Amino acid sequence: MLGSPPLINSCVNGSSLELRVETPEAVTEGGAAVLKCVTTCSLITPTFIWYKNRHPLTTKTSINNQLRLQPVSSEDAGSYICAVQMSSVFSPPKDLIVRYPPKNVSVSISPSAEIVEDSSVTLTCSSDANPPLQVYTWLKELKYIGTGKTYRISNIRSEDSGDYTCQSQNQFGEGRSPAVNLNVQYPPKSVSVSISSSGEIVEGSSMTLTCSSDANPPVENYTWFKGLKTIRTRESFRILNISSEDSGEYTCECRNRWGKRRSPAVDLNILYPPKNISVSISPSGEIVEGSSVTLTCSCDANPPVMEYTWFKKKQLVAKGNTYTISNISSGDDGLYKCKSINAVDYRYSAGVTLKIVAPPRDISVSISPSGEIVEGISVTLTCSSDADPPVEIYSWFKGSAKLGEGEIYSVLNISSEDSGEYTCQCQNQDGEGRSPAVGLNVLYPPKNVSLSNSSSGEIVEDISVILTCSSDANPPVENYTWFIEGGVSPVGSGHSYSPLQSGSYYCEARNEHGAQRSAPITLILKGGHSITLYVAVAVGAGLCVIAALLILALSLRRQNQKKDKTKTNKSENQEVEGDTYMALDPSVRASDVYQTLTNLRPDHPVTVNTSVSSDYENIETLNNKIKTSQC
Fold first, then answer.
1. 574-584: per-residue pLDDT in tens?
2. Lowest mean pLDDT among 2-6, 257-261, 499-503, 528-532
């Protein structure tokens, strides 16, 4: 705590007392530092009290306002406060910074337990220094090996054993740690067998086999093998009066607490075919389509193997002790064997199976039923693919819109809106793929049959109006047929129709799947005394036929006028008009004269005046045209 409540808190002149501490910006260890307690006014014989890190410095009380530290040590660094005795006024804290070279340099080892070969070891250097920015230098047996606060040895070897020190340095000096020893332990290695007899080993002679090894800690036990059979458990053994039954491969196995290692085989002049044949696959694990895989064949044989050959099932695929398959595909999967041959015989390895994993491929969509698809039936889409591992998720799309999931997608009571391109996306743990698009072309009878009128209303001048029939159908409409309400027979055919008389007209659209009629449209033709016929002034015989038909119509009207000349002009005009329409109306003719006329040349209209006073003039005019034409 900072002390008891004060008795005096003001200056001699009555003003408020304020204090502050003045320190050097920084001081180096071993030098001197003077701290001053500055007041804002005069005090009568003040006694100053000093605090470090809020604890009173009982030995640092002074009558003057200075606190002198000499020599300065790193322990003097901290926060200082000054006060006046018998006052509750304290200065704000002020830090004293002491700079010093590294000290207490030490090295720690992680892990701290026994260090075994092939493990990783980290040496960490630590020290106390100000400023903390330091340079760390690592030495092994006093030879420079690296820098940095830590020194890491990955996959440590026996050669890394030895004494390590760390040297830490800043701008004010340096310090070095005590040496730490790395004792790398390792299982036996460099195991070898020596034979006392050099050259050929003759039956009946004697020989000694000796095993040696490098190990830390030293080898605890030795084991001798002939082939795979244990025969001795000592460092060396002697064979007296050697016989052919002693021929074979001899190896020595050394063991300590960290493992064991076997020497290369020593052959006592034995001849035998390959054995212990094995095949390794690199890389190990799953084999992904498109990668490269290497098969390696190894075996024990005396004399050495002369040839390696590779077989997939019973087919020869390669030679050599390694077989590399680049850009592997599903066609490369299967059972492989390696055949090893020496001068004595040959042997096959056990079969190894290459199983290729790949994202789905060869994705296709089948449609059932396979023939024409007519609106109203049910259609099933089935997705299939070649995938290993098998497909986990099937997703269906129409265009870019997702429809659902599952191997099968069914559309019940199919409609024209279901037409479009469908794709199936297959996914397994190795990726995904999508099928080519298949089109659903839904066939349906005409629908939405409607009429359009070339005029602006129901009441039209003369007979120049054209009605057009339109429909939605798949396949397109084959026949358009025109009817007038109240009539029994069709009045026309074709996509467009020009009516000859007032009435309500409708059209019927038909394709191979059915028919539909439009709503009727009512037309009132006015003008009554003229009929505009869109007649093509055809070349040759066409013009003759047209003129003859018109003359016939006018002649019939003239004969009717002579028979009924007692009737009124009004009645005569109505009868003539009616006869003319009877001659041109396709509903009462054996052949469609009007349709024939309009099909010849609809771009050359000919107007025939049907009034009584102009009959002869029209006939004469037509006769003149016939004479001048090339009929």
1. 332 333 333 33
2. 528-532
Q: Are residues 162 and 182 in contact, defined by beta-carbon separation less than 8 angstroms?
A: yes
467-474 sheet: strands from edge to edge: 373-374, 442-453, 467-474, 496-497
What is the homologous superfamily of the domain 19-96 according to CATH? Immunoglobulins (2.60.40.10)
Q: How far apart are CA 46 and CA 15, in angstroms?
A: 16
Residue 270 pLDDT level (bands cut at 50, 70, 90): low
CB neighbour class for 231 (10 Å; exposed up to 12, middle 13-18, buried from 19): middle
* Encoded amino acid at 495, one letter: H
What predicted TM-score, i.e. pTM, was given to this entire model?
Answer: 0.37
Residue type, position 406, single letter: G
What's the CA angle centered on 357, arms 351 and 361, to 5 degrees?
Answer: 130
Give the model's pLDDT for residue 227: 87
CATH code for 272-354?
Answer: 2.60.40.10
Q: How far apart are CA 624 and CA 523, in angstroms?
A: 36
Check if the beta carbon of residue 127 is closer than 8 Å to that of residue 104: yes
Q: Which of 506, 530, 523, 519 has the alpha carbon at shortest distance from 618?
A: 530
CB 96 within 8 A of CB 76: yes
What is the domain class of 358-440 according to CATH?
mainly beta
Question: Is 3.40.50.620 the CATH number for 186-267?
Answer: no
Residue type, 377: I
> What sign has the CA pseudo-torsion 138, 139, 140, 146?
positive
Report the range of poorest mean pLDDT among 46-50, 87-91, 400-404, 556-560. 556-560
Q: Which two tokens stand for residue 155?
A: 């996959």
Architecture of domain 100-182: Sandwich (2.60)
Pull the structure tokens for residue 424: 């199936």
CB 308 within 8 A of CB 319: yes
Q: pLDDT tens for residues 144-198?
A: 999 999 999 999 998 999 999 999 999 888 899 999 999 999 999 899 999 887 6
Nearest to 147 by CA among 175, 168, 176, 129: 168
Class of domain 444-526: mainly beta
Q: Do domains 186-267 and 272-354 have the same CATH topology?
A: yes
Sorted by where each begins, the domain ranges of the chain are 19-96, 100-182, 186-267, 272-354, 358-440, 444-526, 531-628
Cα–Cα distance for residue pair 35/81, rounded to 1 Å:
10
